[in-house]
């Protein structure tokens, strides 16, 4: 069973976070979406407050997409909009191949890297995880420093000093405690997007993404020529913090602002 929060009015919109994150990653954007959407922010298996998948189930992107779809059926949700970041973006694109979602918006999604780029990105995530765990006892103190946040979060964010201290502390805690982190990163390395979406797709990419570099957006464009592509100027890998209003606008327009 996935942990989740829901608020707002309008068509249903599911928000899916990235590797080692939690639903709190969407906090800057949710208040901008709730006047137009009923927002469901979920914790993926092994992240936040959600239990990990069983040892027999490898947390691949398709398996995680199926898990979210089962949760949707349990909640009697269908024809929803879905948006995801990084790993969550890959899951959103997988879900767009099926019949349960109306639109999908992917922010810097995984699945378009080459082997060298994945090695770099996964090494960065593992280093972040190591730091989060090592600093866990003092993170409520050190992340209150804007200078420390800038140093610690420069890869994920284009403007790390803007991240509120409480959000940085929450993010570090989520990364440190993600129980399926290792298996998830390993499974992600074998994932490459293929196939054709059945629902309209928007792909938005931070031009200052230092984990999944901007050039991967061009590969996505070639593989998904019918998708809507949006460059996120001034944004890094986690654009929800860098520019919440721009991200909200991309999601709303990609899912039909008045639908």
Feature tags:
alpha/beta; Rossmann fold; 7-stranded mixed β-sheet; 7 strands; globular
Summed up, what is this model?
The protein has eleven helices and seven strands. The chain is α/β, with parallel strands linked by helices and 259 residues long.
Account of the protein in words:
- With 259 residues, the protein is α/β, with parallel strands linked by helices.
- It has one domain (4-254): Alpha/Beta hydrolase fold, catalytic domain (Rossmann fold, 3-Layer(aba) Sandwich), CATH 3.40.50.1820.
- The protein has helices at 30-33, 61-74, 87-95, 115-134, 139-142, 146-152, 165-177, 181-189, 215-223, 239-242, 244-254, and strands at 4-8, 12-16, 38-42, 80-85, 101-107, 201-206, 228-232.
- It has a seven-stranded mixed beta sheet with strand order 1-3-2-4-5-6-7, with helices on both faces.
- Helix 1 (30-33) links the parallel strand 2 and strand 3.
- 49% of the residues are buried.
């Amino acid at each position: 069973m996935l942990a989740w929060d829901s608020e707002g009015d309008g068509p249903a919109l599911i928000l899916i976070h990235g590797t080692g994150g939690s639903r709190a990653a969407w906090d800057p954007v949710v208040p901008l979406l709730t006047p137009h959407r009923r927002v469901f922010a979920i914790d993926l298996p092994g992240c936040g407050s959600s239990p990990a998948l069983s040892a027999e189930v490898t947390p691949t992107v398709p398996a995680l997409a199926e898990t979210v779809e089962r949760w949707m059926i349990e909640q009697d949700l269908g024809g929803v909009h879905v948006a995801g970041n990084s790993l969550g973006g890959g899951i959103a694109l997988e879900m767009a191949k099926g019949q349960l979602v109306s639109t999908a918006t992917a922010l810097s999604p995984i699945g378009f890297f080459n082997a060298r780029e994945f090695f770099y990105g996964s090494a960065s995530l593992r280093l972040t995880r190591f730091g989060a765990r090592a600093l866990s006892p003092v993170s409520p103190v050190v992340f209150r420093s804007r200078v420390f946040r800038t140093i610690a979060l420069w890869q994920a964010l284009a403007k790390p000093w803007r991240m509120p201290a409480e959000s940085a502390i929450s993010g570090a805690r989520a990364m440190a405690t993600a129980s399926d982190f290792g298996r998830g990163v390993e499974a992600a390395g074998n994932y490459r997007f293929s196939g054709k979406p059945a629902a309209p797709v928007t792909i938005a990419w931070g031009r200052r993404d230092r984990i999944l570099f901007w050039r991967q957006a061009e590969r996505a464009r070639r593989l998904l020529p019918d998708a809507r592509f949006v460059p996120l100027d001034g944004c890094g890998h986690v654009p929800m913090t860098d520019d919440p209003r721009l991200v909200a606008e991309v999601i709303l327009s990609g899912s039909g602002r008045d639908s």
